[in-house]
Amino acid sequence: MSNKELITYHLNFHQSFAPELEAISRIVSLADSDAGFLTKEEISEKTMIPTGKSSGKVEPHIYYTAAMRLVTFEKVDKKYECKLTSLGRKVFLEDPYLVENISKLLLHAFLADKYSAATLWSYLFNEFIPKVMPNFNDELIQNAIERKFSSNVNLTPFRTCYNSDLSLGEIGLIRLEGKGYEVEPHRISRENVYVYGYLLFIKWEEILADRSEITFNEIADILSFGKPFLWRERQLRDALDLMQDAGLIKVNAQLSPITIIKNQNSSHCLDKMFSLLI
């Protein structure tokens, strides 16, 4: 089983567990060790991530870590082998305990990407939240998911994900207000320019690889760049201007629609990802 098959994995793959940064960092460390194929019990023993016979945190965190693009995995005869991606290796070298905001932004952006394996996160950030922001509640989500997937979902992991410092709460995208949610789009920051560049280029290289120039509409609608950050058009254009200032792209605003020319690539941005931290 490859992580690509998670695209059709059920909405409740999380087994009621929110992603925990400590567990994710331990899966990444395991992948770095080239431990080979292990049962979930063996992974639990090596990582100290708890698991049980029918449920537990090991399997959901393998799936989370793969959706976040830090690892890939194969599953054969109930055994998992995890391997680092290029992103996973960079993060493991620079921020093994996932304390930096840059790392948390990357994990969230891939978890909530339009093409993410984590169907719940993908749907909410790319389809549901943009239509209802800035406020909504669990009932609205459940009704929308029932219409979209003819299924119910346990929303506790999603709520916890963005409201616990053990998870992705520190990025500040979603606040709990009573029984509801209030969202706050990610504020563009110059120190994150290589994060934005990496996220743009990696999708560009995967989906529109034969193109060195694409339109603003393709960036917004096909690549869905910026959707995980809940950006509207103005914020998306500000991010592109920031990337242009850094020499990553050229924005041709004289054309309609606006076009963007690729001056660098994802590898360049990955190399420089943590270089602007104070």
Short synopsis of the structure:
By secondary structure, the protein is of the alpha+beta class.
Number of domains: 3
In CATH, the homologous superfamily of the largest domain goes by the name Winged helix-like DNA-binding domain superfamily/Winged helix DNA-binding domain
Mean pLDDT: 93
Mind telling me which CATH architecture of the largest domain this is?
A: Orthogonal Bundle
Protein name: DUF4007 family protein
Domain DUF4007: 61-165
Organism: Mesobacillus subterraneus
InterPro entries: DUF4007
Keyphrases for this structure?
278 residues; alpha+beta; Arc Repressor Mutant, subunit A; 3-stranded antiparallel β-sheet; 9 strands; globular; disordered N terminus; DUF4007; DUF4007 family protein
Describe what this molecule looks like in 3D.
This protein is an alpha+beta fold. It has 3 domains: about 5-100, Winged helix-like DNA-binding domain superfamily/Winged helix DNA-binding domain (Arc Repressor Mutant, subunit A, Orthogonal Bundle), CATH 1.10.10; about 110-185, no CATH class; about 190-270, Arc Repressor Mutant, subunit A (Orthogonal Bundle), CATH 1.10.10. The chain contains 12 helices and 9 strands. The strands form 3 sheets. The chain has a 3-stranded antiparallel sheet with strand order 1-3-2. A 3-stranded antiparallel sheet has the order 4-6-5. β5 and β6 form a beta hairpin. The radius of gyration is 19 Å and the shape is globular. Residues about 1-5 have low confidence and may be disordered. Pfam families: DUF4007.
